[in-house]
Amino acid sequence: MATLEEIARLSGVSRSTVSRVINNDPHVSEETRARVLEVVVRLNYQPNAIARSLAAGKTHVLGLIIPKRVVEVFSDPYFPILLQGAFAACNARDYAMTLWMADPADEIRFIAKVLNNGLLDGVIISSMVLDDPLVTALNASKLPFVLVGRHPSAPEVSYVDVDNISSAQMAVEHLYRLGYRRIATITGMLDTISGVDRRQGYENALRIHAIPVDPALIVEGGFSETGGEAAMRRLLPLRPDAIFIASDAMAAGALRVLREAGLRVPQDMAVVSFDDTPIASRTEPPLTTVRQPIEALGETAVNTLLHVLEHPDAGPRRVILPTRLIIRESCGASQRL
Questions:
Q1: Domain range for 179
Q2: Which range, 107-121, 146-160, 221-235, has the best average confidence (pLDDT)?
């Protein structure tokens, strides 16, 4: 493989002059440029793309951080769809993306090894916990970053999200309009902003319609199918007539428990969930659910990060994508409207 030193020797110039020609430096005479390029073509020299990127201060590599264990990421249908959108956006803009999945306890190691080594142009964080130290570390490192999910207390942070509060409120108000009054909820993790916001939307809907918020009817399910099962078992003795479940994965687990208990959905208990992942149309009965554009969240996060990289002085960007309620059989709308 040809080297800069060999090209310099054959061209009769210094190594630094060869480097300036390859990097299209205008301060090189046309005669010298032509002589060097003739040798470059003859030797079929291929510049080291990584080295050139580092020298230019850009690697065209982004990082995507999901502070969860690998088994959690790929057992939840949300994350593969988000990844598909993010990687598609990177490919369209000639960027590569590295994926980091780990328990939050490993974030300090990530900070030490990755954030300050110059290998990433920017970072996207999905599903961070509240008060995540990674956000503080990223702010201090000056590495550009974007969150998937709003940050409740950092006005300088860019993010993309849906309006989880109004979307959850829409789901619960749908149940109210159908005549249900004893409405429970299975929440996501309450140390995440989406978990907190969807619970808030549930409570807002009850208060608007003068229904007291009963803490016993609010059970955390952790955004997992097994968590949905466990939460549903806790709610069964309280006999709600409807339930808002903050993710399709948890709803799938809850439906299994209801079926095992001999309860019919929606006749004995109506169910509305959130996400509209592929599982929502395949459950029995199919789920009425809030559709959030998961793939578009991944695409938009990448495009927002690239905008931040291209316009570093433009200030933070906040992008809220729309949701809509997809009505299927689990809410009983066809029987009540």
A1: 164-292+325-336
A2: 221-235
pLDDT at 48 (0 to 100): 59
* Rounded distance between C-alpha atoms, residue 11 and residue 113, angstroms: 41
CA distance 160 to 296: 10
Residue pair 185/218 in contact by the 8 Å Cβ criterion? yes
Same domain, 202 and 150: no
Residue 53 belongs to some domain of the structure: no
Q: What is the mean pLDDT of the chain?
A: 88
pLDDT in tens, 208-250: 999 999 999 999 999 999 999 999 999 999 999 999 999 999 9
CATH code of residue 66 = 3.40.50.2300
Dihedral (CA of 95, 100, 104, 105) sign: negative
Distance CA 52, CA 326 (A): 49
Instruction: Indicate whether 56 belongs to any domain.
Output: no
Please check whether residue 55 lies inside any domain of the structure: no
Q: Note the pTM of the prediction, 2 decimals.
A: 0.82
- Would 54 be classed as within a structural domain? no
The DSSP annotation for 59-124 comes to: --EEEEEE-S-HHHHHHSTHHHHHHHHHHHHHHHTT-EEEEEE--GGGHHHHIIIIITSS--SEEE
Domains in the chain, number: 3
Furthest-apart CA atoms within the chain: distance in Å:
87
| Judgement on whether residues 198 and 212 belong to the same structural domain of the protein | yes
**Same domain membership, residue 192 and residue 313:** no
The CA distance from 221 to 214, in Å, is 17
136 and 147 in contact (C-beta within 8 Å)? no
Residues 102 and 240 in one domain: no
Q: Which of 81, 322, 77 lies closest to 223 in space, CA to CA?
A: 77
